[in-house]
Amino acid sequence: MSQSVFLVGLMGAGKTTVGRLLAKRLQARFVDSDHEVAAVTGVNIPTIFDIEGEAGFRRRESETIQRFSQEGNIVMATGGGAVLDPDNRQCLRNRGTVVYLSASPETLYERTRRDSGRPLLQVKDRLTRLRELHQQRDPFYREVAHIIIEVGRTSASQVVRQILAALASDART
Ligand SMILES: Nc1ncnc2c1ncn2[C@@H]1O[C@H](COP(=O)(O)OP(=O)(O)OP(=O)(O)O)[C@@H](O)[C@H]1O
Ligand SMILES: O=C(O)C1=C[C@@H](O)[C@@H](O)[C@H](O)C1
Ligand SMILES: [Mg+2]
C-alpha cells in the first residue's frame, strides 16, 4: 500500500487504538497526531492548552497534519478536532483515504471516563459536552470521509477488519 490512511472521529472513537493495529496489518508507519504535537513541545496536551490555548494547539496540530500527510504509506490517527480546519480537511481528503470512526456520544462517554488527558472533556457534564461536539463535528467528519465505519459494539480488531475490507474495495488504494 502506498496510499496513506487517515483516521478521524471524536475523542474515544478508537483512532489511536485502531490506527496502531491497522498500521501493523498494512505494514505502514503509524503516526498519532496528538502524540507528535506533544513530542515536539515536550509537554502533554492539557499543558499546551494551558499555555497556548486551544488556538495554539490547533496551529501545532495543523502543522503536524500538513507535514505527515505528505509522506506516503502511513496510518495517521488525527486529533478529534482536526477536521474543524477546512485546510486540514482538504489536505487529508486529497492525500489519502479518510476513515471516519463513528460512535454515539454514549459510547464515547463510556470510553473516555478513565482518562483525564482530554482538556475539552474536563467539564462537569461530560455526556452533554460529547453530544454538543458530536452535533457540531459529525457533518465535518462525514464531509471529509471516504469510508465511514460504525464502531458502537465492535471490538478494535473487528473495526480493523472492516476497514481492511472497505479499503480493498476502494478505488484509491
Ligand atoms: N472498538 C473498541 N471497543 C472497545 N473499546 C475501544 C475500542 N476502540 C478503542 N477502545 C478504548 O476506548 C478508549 C479510547 O480509545 P482511543 O484512545 O484509541 O481513542 P481516540 O479516538 O484515539 O481518542 P482521542 O481523540 O482522545 O485521542 C481506550 O481505552 C481504548 O482502549
Ligand atoms: O476533540 C478534540 O478537540 C481533541 C481531541 C484530542 O484527540 C486532542 O487532539 C485534544 O484533546 C483535542
Ligand atoms: Mg488518540
UniProtKB/TrEMBL annotation:
**EC number(s) reported in the record:** 2.7.1.71
Chain sites annotated for binding substrate:
D34, R58, G80, R137
Question: Its pathway?
Answer: Metabolic intermediate biosynthesis; chorismate biosynthesis; chorismate from D-erythrose 4-phosphate and phosphoenolpyruvate: step 5/7
Q: Name one GO molecular function term.
A: ATP binding
Q: Which Pfam family is one of this chain's hits?
A: SKI
Q: Name one GO biological process term.
A: chorismate biosynthetic process
Question: Which catalysed reactions does the entry list for this protein?
Answer: shikimate + ATP = 3-phosphoshikimate + ADP + H(+)
What are the entry keywords?
Answer: Amino-acid biosynthesis, Aromatic amino acid biosynthesis, ATP-binding, Cytoplasm, Kinase, Magnesium, Metal-binding, Nucleotide-binding, Transferase
According to the record's subunit comment, the protein's assembly and interactions are: Monomer.
- Give the protein name, as stated in the record: Shikimate kinase
